[in-house]
Each structure stands twice: as C-alpha cells, then as structure tokens.
Design brief:
Layout lengths: L1 H17 L6 E9 L3 H8 L12 E9 L2 E8 L4 E10 L4 E9 L3 E12 L6 E11 L13 H25 L1
Antiparallel strand pairs: 1-7, 2-3, 3-4, 4-5, 5-6, 6-7
Length: 173
Amino acid sequence: MNKFILFLVTLIFSASVLAHGPTPQKVQESVTVNVSPEKAWELVKDFGAISTWLSSAKVTKIEKRGEDTYRIITLESGDKLDEKLRSTDEDLKKIRWEITKGNVPFTDFNAYMIVSKGSNDNESVIQWTARFYRVYKLNPPIPEGQDDATAKAAVQGFVDSGLAGLKKVLESK
C-alpha cells in the first residue's frame, strides 16, 4: 500500500512538472549615444515620438482613456499596436509601457527604457528591456510561428531597430 501511494505521488508530481506552459522570454540591449543624458531622455520619454526613431512605426497617435495614456502605432505593414504607458520616472530617467493589443508574434509584452550617463557628460547609455511570452500558451506541439524563437526574433528586431534609430536621430541633432 505504501509503495502504491508513493507511486501515485511521484506520478502526480511528474505530470505537474511537464504542465508548466511557456517560459517567459527577455530581450535586453543597450546603445551608447554621443549626447547628454538629458537630451536623450527628452526623446525617450516622449511617448508619442516613437515613429521618429523606430523605422517600422509609421504613424503614432496618443489617446487618453480615463486616467491612462495610450499610443496607437501604425506599423509599416499596416498593422496597429495599442500600447499603454505604465509610468515615467524623471529621477531614474525610466519609462515603462505594455502592448495591450496588436497583431504580433508575442504576447504579454512589458518593456522599459532607462537613460543613464555614459563615460562623460555628453554620452548616454540607453537600455531597453522587454519581457514577453510566445503566442501559444499551451504545451507542445507548438504551431509554427507561435514558438519562443519566433517571439524572441520579433522583439529583438524591434529593440535593435529602435536603439539604432534612437542613436541616429539623437546624434544627428
């Protein structure tokens, strides 16, 4: 009887280990720009200015919904993203937001950017951190295009393009 109970307990715990769902993903990159942190922060914190530095963002519209601020980004593909501003911290030079709706190969996207001083007064480091999940929330088999690799590649593309765009725009002013 004791061996049977031990077998059942082992079986239950083994099954729960396999039923964990998707693993959270993270992309974190940074770029050094040759402008002061104050100048870099002015552009980064402007929630409506993303279409000036993210190449895939063609049009940005800001909307107030109650107390919340949203930006609706029209991508070059024609798809739209709804993003909600979570917070802006002037002291830390940090902005946080989330994607609430959009046709993208990832879900539960939350991100933040921080601007910090570089090695001198006219140098800044801009860090972009994004956390998200793949679209398919169940266990394998995972449909093509809804896997971790697809989600990570898409977010990595946004982050890399965005940081390159920020550097280009900031250093050309």
